[in-house]
Amino acid sequence: MSDTNLPLAGIKVIDFTGVQAGPACTQLLAWFGADVLKVERPGVGDVTRRQLRDFPDLDALYFTMLNSNKRSLELDTKTPEGKAIMEKLIREADVLVENFGPGAMDRMGFTWEHLQELNPRLVFGSVKGFNEQSSYSDIKVYENVAQCAGGAASTTGFWDGPPTISAAALGDSNTGMHLAIGILTALMGRAKTGKGQKVSVSMQDAVINLCRVKLRDQQRLEHVGYLEEYPQYPHGTFTDVVPRGGNAGGGGQPGWILKCKGWETDPNAYIYFTVQEQDWGPTCQAIGKPEWADDPAYATARARQPHIFQIFDEIEHWLADKTKFEAVNILRKFDVPCAPVLNMKEIAYDPTLRASETIVEVEQKKRGKFLTVGSPIKFSSFTPAITGAPLLGEHTDEVLARLGYSAGDIARLREKKVV
Ligand code: COA
């Protein structure tokens, strides 16, 4: 499919974002065909250009992996001339996305009221750490802060350890994905009403949305006093808050991370094994314990729960001479929901993830080839083509020329560090 036929072709997005939550949202829109223009501080740009660099003078992977398929305009939006340029862009945009600290947009003069005056059709997407009603709404927020405020940390980890942060970007990229859904919804709404609207997503709210099963558990705990699928049941104790459940997870089917051959030296020689109620019979066959299938001490989930760790121990004995891949290849034939614990190297070089374009190799100006994520959303009529990220200000001249600025104007703006 050519770029002009992509679903979001013709949608103009001003990407006034930084770090991860905002850029992840606008990158998704860019993949699906929107014209995404990143507006960045002259000479500085998105902070991630310089964060965690692997080569001294190159844009960091942190930046290139969140800003593919975009263009970049250097613009100081705090100067009168910079503001005037930004206003021109806003007048012709469909979407403006920002994720600055609380109040930054207002301090720059870009209040929601002013944005509506400039362009009533504008969809304005905004990420903050906390929503406007929150007593914490003045606080700046990064990923891990949101994971703590959204219930993820208190429910992740082991019961005898502290609250734990997930490596998955529940606060950042997850919030960006929520915002993308909100923006697309507002664009559909605009097609009916002709009017734009403000779409706000807070990182705390986006994390809570993913922690819904823990909110379920909080209420179950209040009703019955225990949670039968947690390792604390039946021998441990429950308080009045959802405990950390180790690797039990949040589903109705008990499971655990189990050691496979080589675990002594390989920290990822494990599989996740799920004891699925409806497939208990085949599971017993698979692990060489056919006698458990009809044994009253094992036959039902309730009967198994008191000795679930003894069951997992037995399964680990069975796994002791099998690699994680061999184990999964056996278990899949018996319909056991399971997977190897894949490390990032295995993911990076997995040929099937490359074939599906979930992981893609991209050419980046100055850097050369690097690996990044492709679209996790697969469409039947197109596959988003992932390109490199823009260099800082790479498209400044072309954007300003299109807005009617002459080469002399641009040189003057550059001298004054407006662009
Ligand atoms: N021209 C002029 N000024 C610009 C500019 C530009 N192109 N781009 C940004 N700025 C200004 C902002 O207006 C702001 O000005 P201020 O002095 O009035 O506050 C300033 O740069 C700093 O921006 P800010 O985003 O607040 O940076 P920070 O480094 O202090 O804070 C965060 C970073 C991420 C903590 C903060 O932006 C935040 O809490 N964002 C909301 C939640 C979020 O998205 N978190 C990150 C998830 S990955």
TrEMBL record:
CoA binds at residues 41, 75-78, 99-101, 107, 140-143, 276-278. Pfam families: CoA_transf_3. It is an enzyme of class 2 (transferase). Pathway: Metabolic intermediate degradation; oxalate degradation; CO(2) and formate from oxalate: step 1/2. One of its GO terms (molecular function) is formyl-CoA transferase activity. The keyword Transferase applies. The keyword Transferase applies. Substrate binds at G251, G252, Q253. Involved in the catabolism of oxalate and in the adapatation to low pH via the induction of the oxalate-dependent acid tolerance response (ATR). Catalyzes the transfer of the CoA moiety from formyl-CoA to oxalate. NCBIfam families: oxalate_frc, PRK05398.1. Homodimer. Belongs to the CoA-transferase III family. Frc subfamily. This is Formyl-CoA:oxalate CoA-transferase. It comes from Paraburkholderia solisilvae. The lineage of its organism: Bacteria, Pseudomonadati, Pseudomonadota, Betaproteobacteria, Burkholderiales. The gene is frc_2.
